[in-house]
Amino acid sequence: MTLVIYTILVALVVGFLLGVLLGLFKKIFYVKVDPKVQAVRELLSGGNCGGCGYAGCDAFAEAVVKGEAPTNGCVAGGASCAAKVAEIMGGSAGDVVPKVAFLACHGTEAVAQKKGEYNGVPTCAAAQLTMNGTKKCAFGCIGFGDCVEVCQFGALSMGKDGLPVVDREKCVGCAKCVKTCPKHLFVLMPKDTKGAIARCSCHSDNKPQIRKDCAAGCFKCGICAKKCPEGAIDITSGIPKVDYSKCTSCGECIKACPDKVLGLF
Fold this sequence. Notes:
Elements: H1 2-28, H2 35-43, H3 57-66, H4 78-89, E1 99-103, H5 124-131, H6 146-150, E2 156-158, E3 164-166, H7 176-180, E4 186-190, E5 196-198, H8 207-213, H9 223-227, E6 233-234, E7 241-242, H10 252-256, E8 262-264
Antiparallel strand pairs: 1-4, 2-3, 5-8, 6-7
Helix pairs in contact: 2-3, 2-4
């Protein structure tokens, strides 16, 4: 019985001493946090998506207060968040252009030829590393959904045709899919873009091979540029690039494209 009492007393004394020591350490090593940093942090989305260019929301909040990051840098928070952050910082948020991800490939399983059966780790990164993708088109979407896995906002899902589908209402333009895709098939576009866009990223100039590898691939015929009444399409890079300051969304290029590479954004 005496041993039990002594054990309890020792435990209480040790606990008391540890509590005192922890309190001292907290005071000694306390790092003062700028209240502005806390205020900015509370306004952010909390997704730690990295769309602002920083490691997470905490790092971005500190950068804003230090003047190293713009008040409208939280892409997930949008214009309302930017306005509130700017109010705290005593400035203007500036223009916030909402962006969404776009997949520049429409080489579905039905039209894009496979190299063969892939038996490795079922990720796009692994397939790219081991055999430069699973399709004969070196620029085609691999289709294992690495982009879907990294999207924290539920804006991406795999379609039945083997290609990822972007939900524009949920997409915040954080660019995680852009950074993750080993084929670099995602691009960020202003959400209010009006006009045609190329759904292909094949930069090969081997026209016959393009047709063999993917029936939906752009084979550089140039008809879209010739048919555009506004001269808004440039094909010097191998892929139709649309000048949206000229494009009127007339759809003539879309009608003319033999493989339906161009579509309205």
